[in-house]
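sorry for the late reply, my laptop died twice this morning and i had to redo everyting from scratch. anyway the thing you sent over, i finally got around to it. pasting the sequence first so we're on the same page, its 309 residues, then the predicted structure underneath. double check i copied it right bc i was rushing
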Amino acid sequence: MIIVSAGKAFNDIDAFACALAYRELLMKEGKESVVVFPGPLNHSVTNLAKAQSTDFVVDYVLQSDDRIVYVDLSDPEHFAFGKESESQIDELYDHHYSFESYWQDRLGERSHIERLGAAATLIWEEFAKKSFAQSISAESANLLSIAILQNTLNFTSTETHDRDRVAFVELTMHRSMTDGWEAQYFRECAEGMETNFADALRNDTKKIEHLFENSLFVFSQLEITEEPKAFLEKHNEGILAYWSEFDYAHCLINIADMSSKTSLLFSDNSAWLTETIVPLFSSIVHRGDGWIVVPIHQRKQILKLINTH
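ok and here's the structure:
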């Protein structure tokens, strides 16, 4: 059996779309597979996305003869089936940094890690490479389109590649969503975030060990379409309450506003923000006590800057 999966902590719309669409691709090739999401779906997997497909399982016991395809993920520490599942990996598709050489050495041409706005672009390109582009289902085309839109921050992110734009346009002829679906999707994201902010924050947080010596790095990201400082003031108490659960941790949130094309970075440790995060950016748009506003960045870009420095 081929298992298509992603992370154990949480799964966002890119992982959701990639896994379900890739399962369809495997089916077209006559291969049996199942999508497994042990980690919760975060607020980016809205009702519009779930209306396309929920053909996955949460609980699955990995068998010794199973083969795994991981999507939207390349860090072994976060694999759904743990680092010990490495020997069972057949292929890997990701657009995050840091593990390119690691997987090239182990998987060779079966490692697909490229600098793109969305991993969903890679999955669409696989449909095209294998001559199944014309037969892709509307549901998979819808999911990949949603994922590209969200992961490129509505094409405002500097990580957006021309390949993302091309994929999005090519998927147009296969989509079945009605006009206005883009606004509907982002509205659903906002409503989901507001309905249960604590879960939205918890399920879009990466916890990284040993990046800053022996301290845990708790790094949250939320995408919004409203004034970021007002958003922070509204949710400041909830953010700090969540961070209080962690001892000896450096905490940071990236509030990425697609309207102003800026990212507000906030930490509960103003001195640490000034010493460690501020020097990463050549341009600071605004600055306050414990927060800065910079041109819009995604979490993976900021992590790359941290690792580089």
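The chain has eleven helices and eleven strands.
thats about all i looked at so far, will dig more tmrw
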